[in-house]
Every structure is written in C-alpha cells, then in structure tokens.
Amino acid sequence: MKILLLAQFFPPISGGEERHVFNLAKYLSESGNNVTVATTAYDRIDEDPGPFDDNLPFRVFRFKNLPTSFNISLSDRTRPHALPISDPLIKRRLKQLLTTEHFDIIHGHNWFINSALNLGKRFKIPIVETMHDYSHVCATKRLINNGDLCSGPGLKCLKCSQRHFGSLSGPLITTLNAGQRHVRENTVSHFIAVSKFVAERNGIDSTDKYSVIPNFIPDDIIKTKWTQPKTNGILFVGDVAKDKGVQTLIEAMRLLREDDTFIPLTIIGRSVDISDLPDFVNRIQPLPSKDILREISNHVLLVAPSIYPDPCPTVILEAMSQQRPVVATHTGGIVDMIDSYKNGILVEPRSINQLAFAIKEIFFNPSLARSMGESSLEKIQPFTASNVVARIEDVYRSLI
Description:
Layout: E1 2-7, H1 16-30, E2 34-40, E3 59-63, H2 66-69, H3 88-100, E4 105-109, H4 117-123, E5 127-131, E6 144-145, E7 148-149, H5 156-165, H6 169-187, E8 190-193, H7 196-201, E9 210-212, E10 234-237, H8 246-258, E11 265-268, E12 281-284, H9 289-298, E13 301-304, H10 314-321, E14 326-329, E15 344-347, H11 352-363, H12 366-379, H13 385-399
Parallel strand pairs: 1-2, 1-4, 2-3, 4-5, 5-8, 8-9, 10-11, 10-13, 11-12, 13-14, 14-15
Antiparallel strand pairs: 6-7
C-alpha cells in the first residue's frame, strides 16, 4: 500500500503523539508499505527536508503552515499548531503532492487532517483520522472547563476557549472548529480513537465507521527481565502543566515531607503553565525517547496524576515496557492501561492524600514494586507495535 501520513507534530519535536506517528511510519515501512509523512515545519525557516529525516525508511515533507508563517499567536516556533480548519498553505502543498503521486490511503492525526478533507474527495482516496485527544468537539483539546471534566460542547465553549486562547482568538477558534466538525464527520472514511473514552466523548461511537485502537510502543524496547532501579526516586514525564496534575503531585510530595518522608522526585518536560518548581524537585528539560526510557528504567516508579482525561498516554506504556509500576489517576484512557494493584495504583484526580499514600505504598515496598513491574509484561501485549500496526493495516485494507 502507498500511505500518506499527516501529522501536526513530528520528531524532533518530542511528545507521545509524535512518537506514535514516527513509530507507525517506521513499522508500516518495514512491513512492506510505501510511506510518506507530511508534517509542519517546526521553524519558520525550516522547510522540507530536515537533517533529522536522513536515513529514514520513509519520506518526510515539512510544510510551512499559516500560523507559523505569519507568527499568529495560536502557534510558536517550536510547536506549530494546526488550524481547526483547512490551512491554505498546507492544502496547496498537499495538492501538489497528490497531483504528482497516487496514494491508496490518507491517514491524518487531529487537526492537520482538515487540510486534506476536500483533497481526499477530489482524488478519491479514503481518509482515516486518528483521534489522540478531544479536538473534534473541544477547541482546547482537553475537555476541561474551569478545572473540571466538561460534559461536552455548548455555549460555555466560547468562554472556555477565551480563557485559553485569548478574547479574540478563542471564540473564533471554537466557532471554526464546530463548523469543521461536521465536515470531518461527513468526509472521513474511518475514525480511530486511541481509547474507548476518546471515542465516547468525541461522539464517534454512535457511528459505524470507527475503531478503538490504542497508542503503541515498539516490541524491541520491552525489557523481558526485571532490573533494579539505579535511582532512588520517582519520575514524572510530560508537560509541566496543571492539567497534567503537576500541582497535585507537588502538594502530595510536600505532604510526605511534612511526615518526614523524603522521596526524590524528577520531572522531565517543557513548562506550560507552571514555571516555578520547589527546590526538592530535580528538573530536566525534554529528552529524546531513548533517554526517557533510560530515566524510566532508572527510577522506582512513574507518576501520571493527570487532572484532565488523558486519552492514552504513551509514557505509561513506556513505563510498563521497562517493568516499572505506575501511580496514575482514574480518568480517560488510563483506566484501559492500569489494573489497580496489579501493574500500578489508580487514584482519584486532584486527591493529594490518595496520591501521596499510593506513592509511599509502592516506594517503600520493593517486592510490591517488582511484582507490579513484572505484571506489566502481560498487560503491555495489546499495546505493542506487532499487535496495533496490524490492526491499523486491516482498517486500510477494508477501505481500499
């Protein structure tokens, strides 16, 4: 099959969605498919190809988009967000590509798909969209309103997006996305949701053209033998943001310290809306995937205390692949990944006491930590590339 993957973000930009699309392109190529990736140039002067793209088993085209080219506030130089509607610059480049080459499938991820919808119809190519978040119904993509889980789209979205994007951009982005939602529903051939919760909250579970197929990790990163952690501490990996539960984590660690329980905490990630961290936190800037795996393996456990309904966090899968237990919140797609007291512990979002107790319970019980880590080997199997990529290829074949 000749496959065109569309990605809003792509390495060297670091994140779960980026690693997912990169690995998908790699495994599809290795199974005999002809794969091309189209993504956004991550710098205003960086157009295809980039130095990162040498020696890959697939092609990468990096296109400038409207926000990056004109320095619109929706974007920045390092994370060039796609528009909630078709981007004229991206659409023009995609049209040039589709005019010169034939593709069997177009597979897009989130809002980048908007620039390909009409082109898919014009060139009669089936379109698949993977939903990694709630951007189909929520302009902020998080499904959080005033700090609480949102019940779904409505007039409240205007005020919510105003707080998120600004007084002018917010309502405009919300309105455009609401209109484009109907275009996506009528044009996309098949939706893939990364968890059952994502399918339900994006409203695609009422249709007959969707599948729930999770994110995945490469089979070859899975540790088949348990190893002793090299660092006596716990780890958080992700955006340093309130939605990710970082503030709750900090308060939980303070609570433990007040009880004379000192557990080293390392946080890896970019600052979003939390910039100042306490002195007892070891802060590391974003790292490449292989370095993240090393840090996970070095620590006793991973903490994922998200407040918002995290759709299918890849970092939890990576922790499971390294036989490390996870303390996470009972929300979103996380419940599909963690069986409480089997391969980790689930706590309620925002519960400082529950989070502190769960961290302490695993950290000071090495046999429990090892048992949970070893249980991850069985739980990780449905989330491996050998299982997931084959399911995605089945979707492609059914549409062709």
